[in-house]
């Protein structure tokens, strides 16, 4: 049904009113109401809220048409009702006056039916359009109207510098809940009035949404002191004091006129976000640099959608090496983006963007499938296989079909579940623990290894470890570059590795770049190592070659793989004799006294599995050296064999008391020496084993 249109005819002459009324005589959707005077018209308007248009005679006794028009346009309730003024064709003076006051059109007497009806129709149409453009609650422009008005204004006045100011109420939702919607509306209306009053005819203003308002005015009018700033300050203070709220905003100086008004407003909104955590500053300016970055990000996100289809992403694999055997035992897949214009883009740059935009799961799905494809190819070509771990973002873990997605892939490519591992970051866990625990449990039950990435980088690593049933820990790379200068970092890594062992987990150290780091890690029993020291991330074909070479030469033993023995004696001959006695199966380090020995231990500690020391030496004797070794947490596990001069001497007794593992006597009996050293190394290995067994039992106990 068409809405009924109500027209109020105001004229002191009855015949005129009747004439006009008759023009719509038979049309049901028009209702014509009559008023004989201006006063009567006001009464009717106050009573009936449904008047759509007023046909107003200019000359009337009492309140004239011009007077009535002036009054209506000042009253909020009536100012939007369109008015058509009726004049004699020779009353031109009134025309101008009526226009100035806000009349919408004229009709001349004598009335001609066709013309009158057409004019009314046009004005009604225009007013409907205006209604659409005004915000119902506050009566100011809607966002769309604001955009178009502002564009017009800026186009017409290219010389003037304009600013866009966006303002809103901090936590308006809370205020609505606290005071109720009626009060909330009142605040919004008041805010709109303030803006209207402050901007006036100097610029444009409108309501963006909810409690967000926007205006555009010349910078010169905005800069203090100005009427604009005075009204805004006063109005804001009044609102803030009365309702206990905070108003803040963002400003964008519209220097770049090629930008659409929508983008200008976005920038003002962005600037406003900077005030969010800043209770002192009411308004912030848009920061060009930050804005540029934001725009670039948006462009990258846009490009990414195309990039997937165009195959601009590819994977590299970084091999992970066994700490003891130095063989590649697994690899991590890392995504790369070769952008057609921007060139190589680091995942450190685009991964966070994709996470925020939710696009990451699609990228990850692509990476996982690539990995499976590579593994399936290796398998087909008989390449020695190693498991590959893939990164899963927090977004992947929040979707409930993670296991299904992974299962689908391994099945499609015919891969055993041990071949695909999943890395989850600690930070993902802190954000959504319950969901992630469930997903990890499911993956583990199904037979997939799950790694905790960047372990130790978060705030509550231990807590995470307690709750998340991952089975491999990846020690964050930030510990590695601190290892050498910070004893604390070294102690922490040592503890992480021990703790992981107690919990039955394997450890991987990430970001390992130096030999010293490798040896430290070997010494403390970290299982595997990933880092530039062994290999950067490489193409899958290169990994293939690497696996083939390594596993072909698997039999050859390298010097570094041998058991290391530190021989400490001030007599060079004695050291030579000992080395001869023990043979080529060991790797030797030599020192002429205790001090030198400690130095060598510090540098190569991690390659040394046994120390053989003479007792009597200059600078530092063997017993003191023994004490030093047993007092240092990193060295204390290394067995020490003490060389004495005679059986049953005080030295022997002393050495055993200090923790020596075995004694040998000068002059050396080759067979005895060889045998004893072998035994000591066996015992050391057994100790290690015993510790492992004990740990496993502890684990069982914890689980039950
Ligand atoms: P991440 O998972 O911690 O990956 C290890 C990062 O350390 C990689 O950087 C790797 O190239 C780098 N790296 C390896 N060894 C060393 C070293 O010895 N020294 C130094 N300084 N760095 C080393 P990349 O490739 O730039 O990846 C950065 C991050 O991007 C990754 O950190 C991961 O969080 C994310 N990422 C990479 N690929 C993917 C993916 O396919 N999916 C998801 N969701 N994230 C990915
Ligand atoms: Ca990773
Ligand atoms: Ca990592």
Structure description:
This protein is an alpha/beta fold. The protein folds into 4 domains: 129 residues, Response regulator (Rossmann fold, 3-Layer(aba) Sandwich); 144 residues, Alpha-Beta Plaits; 239 residues, EAL domain (TIM Barrel, Alpha-Beta Barrel); 132 residues, 3-Layer(aba) Sandwich (Rossmann fold), CATH 3.40.50.2300. The protein is built from 28 helices and 24 strands. An 8-stranded mixed beta barrel has the order 11-12-14-15-16-17-18-19, surrounded by 4 helices. Strands 2-1-3-4-5 form a 5-stranded parallel β-sheet, sandwiched between helices. α3 links the parallel β3 and β4. The chain is elongated, with a radius of gyration of 42 Å. The model has no long low-confidence stretch (mean pLDDT 87). Bound molecules: ligand C2E and calcium ion (2 copies). One calcium ion binds next to β16. One calcium ion (CA) binds next to loops.
């Amino acid at each position: 049904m068409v809405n009924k249109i109500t027209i109020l005819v105001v004229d002191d002459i009855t015949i005129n009113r009747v004439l006009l009324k008759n023009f719509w005589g038979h049309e049901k959707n028009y209702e014509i109401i009559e008023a004989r005077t201006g006063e009567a018209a006001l009464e009717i308007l106050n009573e009936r809220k449904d008047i759509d248009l007023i046909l107003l005679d200019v000359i009337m006794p009492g309140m004239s048409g011009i007077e009535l028009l002036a009054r209506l346009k000042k009253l909020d309730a009536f100012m939007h009702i369109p008015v058509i003024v009726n004049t004699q064709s020779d009353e031109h003076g009134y025309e101008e006056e009526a226009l100035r006051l806000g009349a919408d059109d004229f009709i001349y007497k004598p009335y001609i039916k066709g013309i009158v009806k057409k004019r009314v129709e046009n004005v009604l149409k225009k007013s409907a359009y205006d209604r659409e453009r005004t915000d119902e609650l506050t009566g100011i422009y809607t966002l769309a109207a604001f955009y178009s008005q502002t564009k017009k204004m800026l186009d017409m006045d290219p010389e003037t510098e304009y600013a866009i100011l966006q303002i809103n109420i901090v936590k308006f939702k809370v205020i609505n809940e606290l005071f109720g919607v009626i009060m909330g509306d009142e605040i919004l209306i008041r805010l709109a009035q303030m803006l209207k009053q402050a901007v006036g005819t100097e610029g444009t203003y409108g309501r963006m949404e909810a409690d967000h308002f926007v205006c555009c005015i010349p910078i010169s009018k905005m800069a203090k002191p100005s009427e604009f700033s005075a009204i805004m300050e006063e109005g804001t203070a009044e609102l803030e004091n009365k309702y206990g709220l905070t108003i803040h905003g963002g400003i964008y100086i519209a220097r770049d006129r090629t930008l659409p008004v929508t983008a200008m407003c976005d920038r003002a909104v962005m600037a406003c976000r900077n005030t969010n955590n800043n209770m002192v500053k009411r308004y912030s300016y848009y920061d060009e640099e930050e804005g540029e970055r934001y725009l670039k990000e948006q462009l990258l996100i846009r490009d990414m959608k195309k990039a997937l289809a165009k195959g601009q992403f590819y994977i590299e694999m970084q091999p992970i090496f066994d700490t003891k055997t130095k063989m590649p035992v697994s690899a991590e897949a890392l995504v790369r983006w070769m952008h057609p214009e921007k060139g190589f883009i680091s995942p450190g740059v685009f991964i966070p963007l994709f996470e925020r935009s939710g696009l990451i799961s699609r990228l990850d799905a692509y990476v996982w499938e690539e990995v499976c494809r590579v593994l399936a190819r290796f398998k087909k070509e008989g390449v020695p296989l190693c498991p590959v771990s893939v990164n899963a973002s927090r977004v992947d873990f929040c979707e409930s079909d993670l296991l299904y997605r992974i299962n689908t892939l391994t099945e499609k490519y015919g891969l055993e579940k041990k071949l695909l591992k999943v890395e989850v970051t600690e930070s993902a866990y802190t954000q959504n623990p319950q969901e992630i625990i469930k997903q990890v449990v499911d993956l583990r039950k199904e037979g997939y290894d799950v790694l905790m990435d960047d372990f130790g980088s978060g705030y509550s690593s231990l807590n995470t470890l307690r709750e998340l049933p991952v089975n491999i820990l990846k020690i964050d790379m930030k510990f590695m570059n601190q290892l050498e200068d910070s004893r604390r970092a070294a102690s922490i890594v040592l503890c992480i590795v021990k703790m992981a062992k107690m919990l039955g987990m394997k450890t991987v150290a990430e970001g390992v770049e130096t030999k010293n780091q490798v040896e430290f890690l070997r010494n403390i029993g970290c299982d595997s190592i990933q880092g530039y020291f062994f290999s950067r991330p490489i193409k899958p074909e290169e990994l293939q070659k690497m696996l083939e070479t390594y596993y072909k030469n698997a039999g050859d033993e390298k010097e570094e793989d041998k058991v290391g023995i530190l021989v400490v004696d001030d007599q060079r001959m004695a050291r030579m004799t000992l080395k001869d006695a023990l043979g080529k199966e060991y790797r030797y380090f030599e020192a002429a006294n205790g001090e030198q020995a400690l130095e060598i231990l510090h540098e190569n500690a991690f390659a040394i599995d046994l120390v053989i020391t003479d007792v009597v030496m200059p600078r530092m004797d063997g017993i003191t050296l023994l004490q030093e070794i047993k007092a240092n947490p990193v060295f204390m596990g290394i067995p020490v064999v003490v060389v004495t001069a005679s059986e049953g001497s005080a030295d022997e007794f002393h050495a055993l008391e200090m923790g020596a593992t075995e004694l040998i006597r000068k002059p050396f009996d080759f067979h005895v020496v060889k045998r004893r050293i072998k035994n000591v190394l066996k015992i050391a290995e057994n100790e290690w084993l015993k510790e492992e067994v004990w740990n496993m039992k502890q684990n069982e106990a914890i689980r039950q």
